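G.,

No rush on this.
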Amino acid sequence: MFCRRLAISLGLLLASCLVATAQEAAVTVPKASAIEVYLAKDDGTGKAGEEATSFVTTDVPIYCVVLLDSADQTTVKMNLVAVAVPGVRPETRVVSTSYTTRDNQDRVNFTGRPVGQWVAGRYRVDIFIGSLAVVSREFAVQQSVQAKPATKPTPPKSSDRSRLAGPVRRN
């Protein structure tokens, strides 16, 4: 009888602890319409610049800015996904990161940074608030004019070589 009462008491105590923990961990999940998400290039000082809609392979890093409508504490997660990128399996997560805001913080800046340059192709950012997917935004990275491989000079034809070497003397 004593063991049964002890087990019931411990069960109730455990349940009340779980409820209290769940109440503390509750976070506000804003509506998707209340969230603004945009992509940006570096402003030259290591921060996100103005909203950008086109990117090239040398735009490292690419910023994803999430503006929340509330300054309540919440967890924001970003997945950067390769949609159609040569040499990468479709729907591969390139970057996955999350950040928990503090009170009175309504902006989160994420960055995507490859080793070297981006590979030209189509990418997507998926934004989650808590575990709820709220925004997906697809974008393209184009081949940079600077990043194109240099063409090798073609060797001169044999008839051109004699002209390059100067006149040929015959004795």
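When you get to it, here's the other one too:
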Amino acid sequence: MARFPSTEWFDDVRKVFNTDESYQGGGGGACNALMGVKIGAHSFLITFEGAECSAAAQVQESDLEAADFILEMAYSDWRDMVENIAQNGRADLHHTLNTLDLGRPEGLSHSAHGDQYREDLFFRYNQTMQYFFDASARVKTQFAE
């Protein structure tokens, strides 16, 4: 059972996402983006290339500057989203990345570098990112905190 958050957990989600064709149609197909994920004190870089998620790595917070965009929430909010996905097989309407982004004054997605074009990749590939997190419904998860 993978611990959330960890590289092992993201790798398990990647395996599900990459091997299930039902997740491959989001965002119109190919997705090329480097997504930063900040979960409390934990930082990750997730690489999407074409129809696959090719890499996931835990990094130092300063390394998130390389990301096209960063998804950041408190650990409790991430846990709530992951648990909701596990219970429903996918995020319900209150737990989608889009709803979480729109429902927060500061948003869910932001940029470390001020490059609006790169930050816009979150909105362009939002459905692919949602399918990625929805794939976590098939990953047995142990919560760390």
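The two ends are 15 Å apart (CA to CA). The first helix runs from residue 7 to 19.

Enjoy the weekend,
O.
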